Each structure stands twice: as C-alpha cells, then as structure tokens.
From TrEMBL, chain A:
Gene Ontology BP terms: response to antibiotic
GO cellular component, one term: plasma membrane
Compartment(s): Cell membrane
One matching Pfam family: ABC_tran
Lipid bilayer topology: Peripheral membrane protein
Residues in ABC transporter domain copies: 7-237
Gene3D superfamilies: P-loop containing nucleotide triphosphate hydrolases
InterPro entries: AAA+_ATPase, ABC_transporter-like_ATP-bd, ABC_transporter-like_CS, ABC_transporter_ATP-binding, P-loop_NTPase
GO MF, any single term: ATP binding
Keyword line: Antibiotic resistance, ATP-binding, Nucleotide-binding, Transport
Name of this protein: ABC transporter ATP-binding protein
From TrEMBL, chain B:
Transmembrane annotation, as ranges: 24-49, 55-80, 101-127, 139-163, 175-194, 206-224, 236-255, 314-333, 345-362, 390-411, 423-445, 465-488, 495-517
Superkingdom of source: Bacteria
Entry keyword annotation includes Plastid: no
Stated name of the protein: ABC-2 type transport system permease protein
Record lineage: Bacteria, Bacillati, Actinomycetota, Actinomycetes, Micromonosporales
Record keywords, A-Z: Membrane, Transmembrane, Transmembrane helix
C-alpha cells in the first residue's frame, strides 16, 4: 500500500443472484485528486462505491481508506470518509437543520462545532430559506444538496459521492462544483460517479471508465482522452451503437 | 380490462417468488392453513344449514357471516396489512377511466389467499342449502356467498384506503385514530353481550339478535340461503338488494379515496413543517437535558419519528386499541368465574398485552428503509443503536402500559391488584422487547415506499404474521416465571410482583440489547439489504 493513495480498491467482486455486477475492480485514487468514475447505466458504479464505503459486503476484495480497511477496521475508516449514496433515502422526516445536527451527533462531533457548521452549510447551500420544511418535501435538487452537506459536515479527508450532479439545477450545480473544487484545493480527495461528461471534463484530474463490472480505462484526464474529446473516448471504450438515422422513422 | 388486472396481479405474484424459497414456503404454509380452516368452516356451515335444528340454521349463517365481515373490516387494520401488489398510484399516468380502475383493482384484490379461504369457508352455506332444499335454494345461497365475498373485499379496501388517507393528513389523523379506537372498542361490548346472552338468556334471544343481524349488511348475504329454504323469496331478494347497494356505496367511497391517493406525491405527506423552537441547532434537536452524544441523538430522532412517520403512528394506534380492548373484555367477562385460573385471567391478559407491546419494534429497521444507510456509513455501534431505540419506544409505550394497569385494576374494583398487574405487564413487555429486538435484527423486511401505512409487499403479510406470532409467543413464555410467582406465590408473590417484574424486564431487555447489538455489528450491510425495497 503506497501512502499517496487516499483510497484503494483491490479485486472487488459482487454477484447478485448469479449475475456478476462487479467483476474484480482495482482502483487507486491518489491523495488530493478529483477522481471521476464514469460508466453507462448498469456498469456497476453504485455497487462498487457501496462496497467501498461499507454499505454492501463484497464477495471478494478489499477497500482501503488512507490505509484503513473498510471491512476490518470500519470505525477508523468510516470516520475518515464522507459519503453521499445514490438511491438511498435520508432521514427525511426531519427538517434540514435537524438532519444535519443528527448527522453531526452520530459522527460524535462537539455540539459547538455542529452548531457553527450546520448554520454555515445551510447558508452556503442556500437551504436556509427552507427553514422548518421536512426534507421529504424538498425538491430533488435540494435533497442532493442536503445529502452533500451531510457528507461534508465532519470535514472528512475523502469524499465518496454517487451521482452528485443528477437532478441538480445549474445554479445549485455551480455551488456544488465550487464547494468541491475548494475542498480538493484544501487537500481533500473526491471520488464521484457520473455520466455527465461535461462536468467530469471540467472538474476532474483523474478519470476511470467502467463498463460491465470492470474498469476499462484509468488515468489522468489527459491520458484517458488523448487527442479526442472525453465523450468520444467514452463511447469508444464502452462501445455502443451509433444511430444510422434509418430507425424510428415513424417518429 | 378486469382480466388484464388479474393477469398482472398473478404475474407480479409469480415474479415475486422467483428465486426466493422462503417466500414460497411461507406462501404454501399460508395456503395449507387457509384450506384447513376454510374446509372446517365449510363443513360446519354445511352441517348447520342442512341439519334439522331451526336454531342452528338461523344462528350459524348470521353470526358466522357477521364474524367474517367484521374480520375483513378489522384484521387488515390491526394485524395483516393490505396487499397492495397493484398500488393505485402506479396507474395514475395511464388513461384509465376511474370505473375501470376500481373494477380492475377489485378483481386483483379478489385474487389472494384470504379471499379464497373466505370463499371456501362460506361455500358450506350453499352446499348445505343445496343438500337440504335442492338446486334452487343452493343457487340463491351461492349467489349470497359470492356477493358476501365481494362485500368483504370491497369493505376492507375502502376502509383501509380511507384510514390511510386520514392518518396521512395532520388535521384528521387524531380523529381517525379515535374513530378506529371507538370502532374496535365497541366490538368488546358486542362480544360480551353475545356471550352473556348465550349463557343466560338461551337461544330464543339469540335468534332474535340473529334476525336483526340478517337485515344488516353484516350478515344479509349469508342468510339468503336459509330464506330460500323456508320459501321466503321476498326476504331473500330484499337482502340481496341490500348487499348489492352496500357494495356499490363502498365502491363509490373507495373510488373517492383512490383518487386522492393517486394524486398525492409519492412519499410526501403535504408540506409539513416542524414546530418552531428557539436555540442553536443542537439544543433545538436534543432539548435541554438529553446527552449530546450519539445515543442522545438516536433517542431524539426515534421519538420524532414515532410522531411523524405515518406507519409508526398507525402501529402505535393499533397497539393502543388492542391493549385497551383485550384485557377490558377478559376482565369484565371473567368476573363471575371460579378457581385460581379464572381469578387470574387478568394476569394472563397482562402477559399477552405486555408481550404484544414489545412487538412494536419487531420491524423497526423496516420503518426506516434505506435511510438506515446513514447509520451504516457512520458505523453506529449496535448496542448503542438498539438501546436508544428501545428507550425511545419505551418513553411512549410505558405510560400507556401504566395507564392500562390502572384502568384494569379499577375495572376489577380492586386497587390492591395494581402492583400484581403492573408487575406482570412490565415483565412481559421486557421479554417481548428482548425477542422483538432480535427479530428486528435477524428478520427485518422491506416495506413498500408508498402512502398507505397498512400496505405490505406481496407475501410479507404472511411472513410478518408468523414472525410476529413467534416473537409474541416467545415473549409470553419468557415472562412465565413472573406470572407463576404471582399465581402461586400467595401474599409474598403479590408483594414481590412489581419489583420482581420490573427487575426481570430490565434484565431481559439488557440481555436482548447486548446480544442483538453484537449481532447487528456484523450484520449492518445485510440488514440494509433486507430493508431495501426491490423495485
């Protein structure tokens, strides 16, 4: 294990009902990198990230956070990462302030620190206006933002975000991008999954492309895309049909 | 159109079983149970109608039918839940006339084990009528049986749908709760009246009661066979018309609440706001005295959830209703009894209710659904998690139980019984909690993420009932030492009942939380997978 990997996945495998979802994923995320995990729907991105943060038990393989094994030393490892899972509900019968406070207390943070950070986070993410509305009544974009705030609250060294830009409007998206860029500039490491290639191209220093449960390409952004655009590189790596124009003529 | 719904329901059922052997086993067990009980009931009904005793022919269809209809009315609310395999909200975008939708959903609801068991049981009435009077009365009775089944199914759908709507809305939820409580509590006096009259006034009065019942929708469809046998064709026709009218009214009511269920945003409960409170975020969340720790946060969140989550509210209300109803009936009913057992019926009823109270947390993680992922990601220790949940639940339940003990002691007109009752009650609550804690860790199941707090996924109604039964039984058995102390301990036992019961309860809960907590530490991801709904 080299020290400059903030996050290392080694040989992760997961099979659901005989169907292989993740087929041996190895990944080393350098400390201080802004890492984009790309892949088409069903490539196994969410499954991989879930196994990496302790939400889903892998059939084989290891996940190391700054040298701590997520499955053997969970307490230490989990305290170092902030996670924003996708397709998972929040404790949405709380309002925004309550949810963040709850998250902070679960993380064992000091009350004064929680008070200060909760107010500031809600302010920066423009969620203060929501006031005492329950999170269940938030819009999709607001839910993403409050979930991000939950992941950021304890100032982790590593952020694992599953689809952070999905269903987010441009203004909120810009806010999230700003926060994440500043976080990386301050020495943090971010890995996030996405299929919004423009965002990845704009933000990421490193990129990995996943398809059918395996990592197909990995490297710095320039290594992966070479002389092409990222989109061309993506389509070439993943493979897929291109429209000929003849089908769907009845539309 | 109705046929399409039927095929859809069967297809969803079959796909739900794919690759899940436990589910199939549970389903088959349920089926066997339904056939056995339904078959016995059918035999009894046929024998009663075909017999020469006019009393039996008058009583069995009326009371049996009324029991059946009332069962369909209450059991889904208090115990089984409704199988919303075809959730109405999913059809919101399809261009379906409301009439077709209601008809389709009704057909889908008819395809199930409970409906089949009901049909089997009540078919005895038609068989009996045919045996005694030939094909024509048999045919009339069969028509009654079919209409009766339709009535049962429509009634249960309409009522659960209306209740879930009322429980969702803040404004009406308390009203709905009270209504449910009154309805269920009123069953007690009725049952009492019947048993008392059976004992004291003989069959003559009972036949009169049956006669009245026969003219209400409760029993009307089930007594037409006897009418036909006796040649009262006009009465039979009137009763059938009454049944049809009731069914139509119920369908109209159901359609109305369906519409609102389809329009409501999934998962939402209207723009609800938390109450305004001053202070910093932590002070506001925890209040003044709760410790500023993981444990304090968990307790505070659980308490908020028991108040804000519709499902949890529904389960609390249901428990409160049963808890008041059950011991009150046994205590009132057993006053004339003799002997040690009859004298101590209250002890048994306390054990039953106490253990039942513990069951409230048997699927506590299922209530949270995927939100539980936040605890997995933070790595909340199992013992702390379970201790907080048990304590928060007890903050709500223990006052109810204490009030219950007082109420029953007052009803027995003997306040010296209070420590005995409270002792057994809390002992059973403790053992019930301990069992339910383990069930919640080992056998959690996903609840559908929709609006109806009574909805369960296909097949899990059965699983739910069996597991809950097992935990309930285990809780009662484990509480036996305290009950035995009370029963055979004489004056010493009575004096020791309360402290011994409390100590026993605390010990049981501590043991349950510690053992289940250690299990939970190793099962967090599996538990999360178990409570994640498969879409």
């Amino acid at each position: 294990m080299t020290v400059d990997s903030a996050f290392a996945l080694q040989g992760l495998v997961k099979t659901f009902d005989g169907k292989v979802a993740v087929d041996g994923v190895d990944l080393a995320v350098p400390a201080g990198s802004f890492f984009g995990l790309l892949g088409p729907n069903g490539a196994g991105k969410t499954t991989t990230l879930s196994m990496a943060v302790g939400l889903l038990r892998p059939d084989a393989g290891r996940a190391l956070v700054l040298g701590h094994d997520v499955w053997h030393d969970p307490v230490r490892a989990k305290s170092l990462i902030g996670v924003m899972p996708d397709g998972v509900r929040l404790f949405d019968r709380l309002d925004g302030t309550e949810l963040l406070t709850y998250q902070g207390l679960l993380r064992g943070m000091a009350p004064e620190v929680i008070d200060a950070r909760v107010t500031e986070l809600l302010d920066v993410l423009a969620l203060t206006d929501a006031g005492r509305t329950l999170v269940v009544d938030y819009s999709a974009g607001m839910k993403k933002k409050i979930a991000l705030a939950c992941a950021l609250l304890h100032a982790p060294r590593l952020l694992v975000l599953d689809e952070p830009f999905e269903a987010v409007d441009p203004v909120s998206g810009a806010t999230i991008r700003d926060i994440l860029t500043r976080y990386v500039a301050g020495g943090g490491t971010v890995i996030f999954s996405s299929h919004v290639l423009e965002v990845v191209e704009r933000l990421c220093s490193h990129v990995a492309i996943m398809a059918a449960g395996r990592i197909r390409t990995v490297g710095t952004l320039d290594e992966v895309r070479g002389q092409r655009t990222l989109e061309e590189a993506f389509v070439e790596v993943v493979g897929g049909r291109t429209a000929t124009g003849a089908e769907l003529s009845w539309l | 159109m109705a046929l399409t719904f039927a095929r859809l329901k069967l297809r969803v059922l079959r796909n739900g079983f794919r690759g899940r052997s436990t589910k199939v086993v549970m389903f088959v067990l349920g089926l066997v149970g339904a056939v056995v009980y339904g078959g016995f009931a059918a035999l009894a009904a046929a024998a009663a109608v075909a017999s020469d005793s006019p009393a039996a022919a008058a009583l069995v269809p009326a009371f049996g039918g009324a029991a059946l209809v009332l069962g369909w009315l209450f059991l889904p609310l208090v115990w089984f839940g409704v199988d919303e395999t075809l959730e109405p909200g999913r059809f919101a975008l399809l261009p379906l006339p409301r009439r077709d939708l209601v008809r389709g959903l009704l057909v889908a609801a008819l395809l199930g084990v409970p409906a089949a068991a009901t049909l089997l049981a009540s078919s005895g009435l038609a068989i009996g009528a045919a045996l005694r009077g030939g094909p024509l009365p048999g045919l009339v009775a069969a028509l009654g049986v079919l209409l009766g089944l339709l009535l049962c199914v429509v009634l249960s759908r309409a009522v659960t749908s209306a209740f879930s709507r009322a429980l969702r809305a803040r404004r009406t939820r308390d009203l709905a709760a009270v209504l449910l409580a009154v309805l269920a509590a009123s069953l007690g006096p009725i049952q009492l009246m019947i048993t008392n009259s059976a004992q004291h006034v003989g069959t003559g009065r009972l036949v009169a009661v049956a006669d009245v019942l026969g003219w209400t929708p409760l029993a009307a469809p089930y007594v037409v066979g006897v009418d036909a046998l006796d040649g009262r064709w006009a009465a039979a026709g009137a009763r059938l018309a009454l049944t049809v009218l009731t069914i139509l009214l119920l369908m109209w009511w159901w359609a109305g609440s369906l519409e609102s269920a389809m329009l409501a945003a999934p998962g939402g409960g209207g723009a609800v706001r938390t109450r305004a409170a001053s202070g910093t975020p932590v002070a506001r969340f925890l209040g003044a005295r709760r410790p500023r720790t993981q444990y304090g946060a968990l307790v505070a969140r659980e308490l908020k959830y028991w108040g804000r989550d519709v499902r949890r509210r529904a389960s609390l209300i249901t428990f409160a209703v049963i808890a008041v109803f059950l011991p009150v009936v046994t205590n009132l009913g057993s006053q004339g009894g003799q002997g040690a057992v009859a004298q101590n019926v209250h002890g048994f009823s306390m054990v039953i209710v106490g253990a039942l109270a513990g069951l409230g947390i048997a699927n506590q993680f299922g209530y949270d659904g995927t939100a539980y992922a936040a605890h997995v990601v933070t790595g909340v220790p199992g013992r702390i998690e379970l201790r907080a949940r048990v304590v928060a639940y007890s903050w709500i339940i223990v006052p109810i139980l204490a009030a219950l003990a007082v109420l029953n002691a007052v009803l027995r007109e003997d306040l010296s019984l209070l420590p005995v009752m409270a002792g057994t009650l809390f002992a059973a609550y403790g053992t019930g909690l301990a069992c339910a804690t383990h069930v919640s860790v080992w056998a959690a199941y996903a609840l559908p993420e929709n609006q109806n707090p009574f909805a369960v996924n296909t097949g899990s109604g059965m699983v739910k009932s069996l597991l809950a039964m097992a935990a309930w039984l285990a809780g009662m058995v484990l509480a036996l030492p305290v009950l035995l102390l009370v029963l055979f301990g004489g004056a010493v036992g009575a004096a020791l009942a309360l402290p011994a019961g409390l100590a026993y309860a605390v010990a049981a809960v501590w043991l349950g939380v510690v053992t289940a907590g250690d299990v939970l530490d190793h099962r967090q991801p599996e538990l999360l997978a178990a409570i994640t709904p498969r879409n």
